[in-house]
């Protein structure tokens, strides 16, 4: 009598890639919240915080893109990986436009800065969701 067992292995995201991807979303979210705080209080420190958060989010986004690009070579579902990379590119480009918008005078960046921050945060959330669920499943006997 032979007993056959079937094991399912889930290959998770690389830890560095996960930290960079989560950092991208959190930093863009922080920029959106600081834009909202500036819109509510008109204290220029919030606009400055938002500018710095966007700059760090762009660095994390670019590095997460590189990790995702390397991960695309070993991905089982390349279509999903390409959608993920496209979302990262779009969020990077809109984030860069947002950084240029925040480089203006604090009064001049509203409301465009807040709207761009909100859009980029939603794109980063979707990219993070796809990135963390983009795990390969392998069955062995």
UniProtKB/TrEMBL annotation:
Top-rank taxon, per record: Bacteria
Keyword Membrane among record annotations: yes
Query: Which terms are listed as keywords in the entry?
Result: Membrane, Transmembrane, Transmembrane helix
Q: Where is the DUF2231 domain?
A: 15-132
Q: Where are the transmembrane segments?
A: 12-33, 53-75, 82-101, 113-132
An example Pfam family from this entry, by short name, is DUF2231
User: This protein is called what?
Assistant: DUF2231 domain-containing protein
Q: Which organism is it from?
A: Kushneria konosiri
């Amino acid at each position: 009598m032979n007993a056959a067992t079937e094991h399912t292995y889930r290959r998770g995201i690389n830890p560095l890639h996960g930290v960079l991807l989560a950092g991208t979303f959190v930093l863009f979210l922080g920029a959106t919240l600081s834009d909202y705080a500036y819109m509510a209080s008109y204290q220029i420190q919030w606009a400055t915080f938002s500018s710095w958060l966007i700059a760090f989010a762009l660095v994390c986004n670019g590095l997460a893109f590189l990790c995702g690009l390397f991960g695309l070579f070993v991905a089982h579902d390349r279509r999903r990986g390409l959608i993920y990379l496209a979302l990262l590119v779009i969020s990077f480009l809109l984030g860069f436009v947002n950084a240029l918008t925040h480089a203006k005078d604090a009064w001049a960046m509203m409301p465009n800065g807040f709207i761009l921050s909100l859009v980029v945060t939603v794109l980063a959330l979707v990219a993070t969701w796809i990135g963390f669920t983009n795990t390969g499943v392998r069955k062995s006997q």
